[in-house]
Amino acid sequence: MTDFVPWTPADAADWIAVPAADDDKYSRGVLGVVTGSSAYPGAAVLGVEAALHTGLGMLRYLGPARASDFVLHRRPEAVTSPGRVQAWLLGSGVDPDHLDDETREGFATGASSGLPLVLDAGALSLRDEAIGPMVLTPHFRELARASGREVADVAADPGDAARRAAGEWGCTVLVKGHRTHVASPGGTLLVAESAPTWLATAGAGDALGGVLGALVATHADEIASDDEALARLAATAAVVHGLAAERASGGGPITVLGLIDELPATIASIVAGRGREA
């Protein structure tokens, strides 16, 4: 779609929160996460890893027990008790037809909180009951299923599919792909084109959810005062995610943990204004 505006590393730099000298773990942003499942515990690990590498003061993981064990083994600084958060990441690696008790409770808590939400995979249907500002992050097939459209139609014009869904659902929609399209119900239309084709790999979307969750948690005040902030944060997450993948790839295959390892340096280069040239 020609009316989608490219979102660049220079644009993204304005939407990355850099801690100040007087910040603490609470003022830097706390993200609540309910992702993963007994079948897909790795999705929880990847999202948590990506969020923490993007920059947070604290992360509360409140998913199922098996996934929680994996998360704590990998990231012992994750907190597994409930408490205050600034935003929620819900649904990555979750089958909505087979919710465990922890996930069901976590979904209900996030949806009723009024806080900003990142809804992925198994939590996409929460758009109908959640009361806070939200951004949905479907891939082509998930968007087709949720909107009742054919996968081929969504793939042929993901920008139009994103715009239609944002208008129908009244929330920001990010459609994942080599070119990631973001549309808001208010009319913001952005496209990020920083990702290498090697990024088409299992787990990449879980990592993107973590990056976006961290950005949303660190910009809760901006989201409360600006209806279009979620769209800009979503596009920023896609830029950061894509550039980290490019660094990890070096022109060849990547792993998602390799991408995550490159997030801090990628963010540093964006903040310094170097972006893709770093």
Q: Whole-number radius of gyration?
A: 17 Å
Largest sheet: 9 strands, mixed
The succession of helices and strands, N to C, reads EHEHEHEHEEHHHEEEHHHHH
Q: Numbering strands along the chain, what is their spatial order in the largest sheet?
A: 1-9-8-7-6-5-4-2-3
Fraction in helix? 40-55%
What's the shape? globular
CATH structural class: Alpha Beta
Q: What percentage of amino acids are in beta strands?
A: 5-15%
Q: Tell me, rounded to a whole number, the average pLDDT.
A: 95
Query: CATH H level: which superfamily?
Result: Ribokinase
Number of strands: 9
What class, by secondary structure content? Answer: alpha/beta
**Continuous helix count:** 12
- Unreliably modeled segments: none
Q: Could you please say which CATH topology applies here?
A: UDP-N-acetylmuramoyl-L-alanine:D-glutamate ligase
> What's the number of structural domains?
1
Distance between the termini: 29 Å
Proper CATH architecture = 3-Layer(aba) Sandwich
